[in-house]
């Protein structure tokens, strides 16, 4: 296993900065400070990390956390082979060993032991204890840890003992003009088509806290625009990519469908 | 659930039809406007017209000719048109000297103006409204018909009307022949154009009855909101109780809501403690100002006087074994993936390999740690408001009876599995009197005394759900616990005597649930009506079990123990 196993980005992932988040991330990385990215779903957190990994010329290891993700899923485990057993690093151990940026997406979804195992990596020790193989892994000087967290999802809250180990950057949906430019670029549609889709997205976000946990994300709008590019009408595309996925509640679905019909 | 004064029979549900939830969301989506929606009643013999007041938007039922999706489209058209006035119209002072015909024409032109502006922003609205514009030259040449035709000509660029009067109206309204820009932008310009058109109708000797006139098509509101009564400019911000509000809304509503845009009031004391029981104040979410009103509701805890219960056979403790098995920590052996190698199958696999024997590709040599499910502190919050006195089905037991049976069974199962439970009934009588009836305290067994207290609960008063939930959460947070669960046994319909706006308490309850979850309290719901209805589903985001039988209680308990 080597650095080739890690994700190395050949082309620059497109990211349109909203402010000075790129500079601040680079400053934190220069000091190897762990970074927490806060923001609603689909606002560009993962793309931002990919963009920064490319910019800083570091490989990237991404882990999508889920409720069954345990500490050993991150650190590693023993495997059987023809000779007996061998140790297999988990993604976090691999990133720490080889000096990658490790991005733990939605960390609060993981099991508590997975949250705790990152703690020694986030302070001055920069070590990862691999208890099962008796190794105290010292992180590579280029290693850095980034986690994301959606505080509005209404699910779990991040524990103070974890959150206070990170510097944090808050990302949000871009302003409409910038979001339209992003959607147009990502999906390859004219700006006026993207502007119409973004207007619907902005409207849907008005229901956040009024029946919806989240409005339409930039990612949803890009998908709608992709369907338009492939020949669907905006009405058909938004119904498939935005309205139907957003809510199962009959009243919310009816309101979203009616607002969609009013929009185009 | 619906309110009732203490000791009186349950009142009927006073909330708006459920379609209003979809309409409210629709208006928020279109313009981020959230007028309160009210049913509108017509005068004697007259069909009701949509209208705006300072209390909100009053919508009558769709006309009988509209059925199915047509009825929904009519309501959307009416709601969108009236709300377009809130977005684009400026209110004018009432002018007694204004001729009724001129006034009607000002309204017509203003209707066309706001629809043109709305359709520029939301093109689909033009399609929606045009579906109701059917006036044409075959409909006659009286004043009202001509006005309906003008209304259509101002909205429909493809409509050509032979009347010179309609053509003149269109010329006055638009800058260009194609109708790409409107000329009437100021109120005085509207009034001038209306007076010209009115004068022409007068010259044509056409009769006009200002009293009987209703703007056409009938989805358009009657424009009374456009004309402020003399000297009422400063009253515009104060909610007004109108005649067609539910009767119980006429008490103290303005006090509860305050006026939009005012500062958040803080009331330090709330109601004084009564009977020596502790009183606690909680904030309440005001959707109009999108902020919490601090120390707004007072919750009183009261003990329940026990009443020996006559228990039905079905109310016996569950014979089912306690569902504690799933919560034990341990290892799941022979798994396809896991936290560590499972030694025995790993050795078996190694022996097979070294012996050169075929070995299982899908070698299940892993052991996965089974998550330990810690015992929970569970607060069961039982709705005992007036509407729980209603039968669950015709001739069936009351909702309260079903609820108490479910609580008894759920607590039995939870306690048998090692969870610590408390049971509170709740009801309210305005924001200063939200009562938690203490049936069972944490650590107390669900014995005969507790069952007698549970049986002593009676239906009455209202459902201020948000305050009740906040107090339940506070009680849970005061417990030293690893897991905290609030099990709400209710239909989820919030209502209280001092609140007019049907969405006010619903949104407050939603905020309370959201806050509870952020504080690590799991909130689950059990609907004794057996419907798992939309209000509870929306409140708890589908974590609701509709109670139709004993199996649903088991399901709810499993939800607690997950």
Short synopsis of the structure:
The complex is a heterodimer of chains A (264) and B (562). By secondary structure, chain A is α/β, with parallel strands linked by helices.
Which keywords apply here?
heterodimer, A: 264 residues, alpha/beta, five-stranded parallel beta sheet, two-stranded antiparallel sheet, 11 helices, 41% helix, disordered N terminus, B: 562 residues, eight-stranded mixed beta sheet, three-stranded mixed beta sheet, 16 strands
Could you characterize the architecture of this molecule?
The complex is a heterodimer of chains A (about 260) and B (about 550). Chain A is of the alpha/beta class. Chain A has 11 helices and 9 strands. Chain A has a 5-stranded parallel sheet, sandwiched between helices. A two-stranded antiparallel sheet of chain A has the order 3-4. In chain A, strand 6 (about 125-130) and strand 7 form a beta hairpin. In chain A, helix 7 crosses helix 9 (about 220-230), helix 8 runs antiparallel to helix 9 (about 220-230) and helix 8 (about 190-205) runs antiparallel to helix 11 (about 250-265). Chain A starts with 20 loop residues before the first helix and ends with a helix. Helices cover about 35% and strands about 15% of the residues of chain B. Mean pLDDT of chain B is about 80; it is low at about 1-15, about 230-275 and about 315-325. In chain B, helix 2 packs across helix 3 and helix 6 packs antiparallel against helix 7 (about 185-205). In chain B, strand 14 (about 485-490), helix 13 (about 500-520) and strand 15 (about 520-525) form a beta-alpha-beta unit. An 8-stranded mixed sheet of chain B has the order 6-7-13-12-11-14-15-16, sandwiched between helices. In chain B, strands 1-3-2 form a 3-stranded mixed sheet, with helices on one face. Chain B has helices spanning about 20-30, 70-90, 100-120, 125-130, 145-155, 165-175, 185-205, 255, 345-355, 400-415, 450-455, 465-475, 500-520, 535-540, 550-560, and strands at about 35-40, 50-55, 55-60, 90-95, 225-230, 280-285, 290-305, 330-335, 340, 365-370, 375-385, 420-430, 435-440, 485-490, 520-525, 545. Chain B is built from 15 helices and 16 strands. By secondary structure, chain B is an alpha/beta fold. The interface between A and B is large, with 38 and 47 residues.
């Amino acid at each position: 296993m080597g650095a080739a196993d890690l994700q190395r980005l050949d082309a620059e992932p497109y990211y349109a900065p909203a402010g000075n988040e790129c500079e601040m991330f680079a400053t934190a990385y220069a000091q190897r400070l762990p970074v927490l990215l806060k923001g609603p779903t689909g606002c560009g957190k993962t793309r931002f990390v990919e963009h920064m990994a490319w910019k800083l010329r570091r490989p990237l290891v991404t882990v999508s956390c889920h409720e069954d993700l345990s500490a050993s899923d991150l650190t590693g485990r023993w495997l059987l082979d023809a000779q007996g057993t061998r140790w297999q690093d988990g993604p976090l151990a691999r990133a720490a060993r080889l000096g990658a940026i490790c991005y733990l997406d939605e960390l609060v979804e993981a099991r508590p032991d997975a949250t705790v195992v990152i703690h020694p990596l986030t302070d001055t020790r920069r070590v990862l204890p691999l208890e099962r193989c008796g190794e105290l892994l010292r992180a590579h000087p280029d290693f850095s840890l980034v986690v994301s967290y959606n505080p509005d999802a209404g699910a779990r809250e991040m524990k103070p003992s974890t959150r206070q180990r990170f510097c944090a950057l808050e990302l949000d949906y871009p302003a409409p003009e910038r979001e339209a430019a992003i959607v147009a670029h990502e999906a390859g549609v004219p700006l006026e088509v993207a502007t119409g889709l973004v207007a619907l997205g902005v409207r849907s976000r008005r229901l956040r806290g009024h029946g919806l946990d989240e409005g339409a994300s930039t990612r949803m709008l890009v998908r709608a625009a992709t369907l338009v590019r492939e020949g669907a009408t905006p009405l058909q595309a938004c119904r498939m990519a935005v309205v139907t996925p957003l809510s199962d509640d009959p009243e919310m679905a009816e309101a979203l469908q009616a607002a969609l019909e009013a929009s185009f | 659930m619906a309110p009732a004064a203490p000791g009186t029979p349950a009142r009927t549900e006073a909330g708006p039809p459920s379609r209003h939830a979809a309409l409210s969301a629709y208006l928020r989506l279109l313009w981020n406007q959230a007028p309160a929606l009210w049913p509108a009643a017509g005068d004697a013999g007259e069909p009701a017209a949509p209208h705006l007041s300072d209390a909100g938007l009053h919508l009558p039922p769709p006309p009988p000719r509209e059925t199915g999706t047509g009825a929904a489209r009519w309501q959307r058209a009416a709601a969108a048109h009236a709300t377009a006035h809130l977005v684009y119209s400026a209110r004018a002072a009432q002018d007694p000297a204004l001729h009724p015909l001129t006034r009607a024409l000002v309204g017509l032109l203003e209707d066309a103006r706001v629809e043109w502006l709305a359709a520029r922003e939301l093109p689909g609205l033009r399609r929606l409204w045009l579906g109701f514009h059917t006036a044409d030259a075959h409909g006659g040449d009286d004043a009202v018909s001509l006005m309906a035709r003008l209304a259509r000509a101002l909205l429909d660029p493809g409509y050509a009307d032979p009347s010179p009067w309609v053509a003149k109206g269109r010329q006055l309204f638009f800058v260009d022949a194609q109708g790409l820009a409107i000329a009437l932008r100021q109120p005085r310009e509207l009034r001038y154009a209306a007076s010209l058109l009115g004068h022409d109708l007068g010259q044509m000797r056409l009769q006009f009855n200002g009293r009987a006139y209703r703007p056409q098509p009938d989805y358009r509101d009657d424009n009374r909101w456009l004309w402020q009564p003399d000297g009422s400019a400063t009253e515009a911000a104060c909610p007004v109780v109108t005649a067609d509000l539910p009767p119980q809304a006429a008490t103290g509503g303005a006090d509860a809501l305050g006026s939009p845009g005012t500062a958040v009031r803080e009331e330090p004391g709330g109601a004084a403690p009564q009977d020596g029981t502790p009183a606690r104040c909680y904030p309440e979410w005001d959707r109009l100002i999108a902020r919490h009103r601090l120390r707004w509701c007072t919750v009183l805890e009261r003990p329940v006087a026990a009443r020996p219960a006559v228990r039905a056979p079905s109310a016996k403790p569950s014979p089912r074994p306690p569902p504690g098995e799933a919560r034990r920590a341990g290892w799941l052996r022979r798994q396809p993936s896991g936290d560590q190698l499972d030694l025995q199958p790993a050795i078996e696999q190694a022996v097979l390999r070294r012996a050169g024997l075929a070995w299982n590709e899908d070698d299940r040599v892993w052991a996965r740690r089974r998550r330990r499910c810690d015992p929970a502190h569970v607060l069961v919050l039982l709705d005992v408001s007036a509407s729980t006195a209603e039968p669950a089905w015709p001739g069936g037991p009351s909702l309260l009876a079903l609820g108490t049976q479910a609580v008894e069974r759920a607590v039995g199962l939870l306690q048998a599995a090692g969870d610590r439970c408390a049971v509170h009934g709740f009801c309210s009588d305005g924001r200063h009197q939200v009562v938690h009836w203490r049936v069972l305290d944490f650590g107390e067994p669900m014995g005969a005394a507790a069952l007698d207290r549970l049986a002593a609960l009676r239906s009455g008063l209202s459902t201020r759900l948000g305050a009740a939930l906040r107090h339940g959460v506070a009680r849970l947070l005061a417990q030293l616990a690893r897991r905290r669960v609030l099990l709400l046994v209710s239909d989820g319909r919030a209502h209280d005597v001092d609140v007019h706006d049907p969405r006010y308490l619903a949104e407050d309850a939603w905020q309370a649930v959201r806050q509870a979850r952020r504080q690590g309290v799991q909130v689950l719901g059990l609907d004794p009506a057996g419907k798992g209805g939309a209000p509870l589903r929306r409140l708890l985001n589908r974590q609701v079990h509709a109670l139709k039988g004993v199996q649903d209680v088991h399901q709810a308990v499993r939800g607690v123990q997950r």
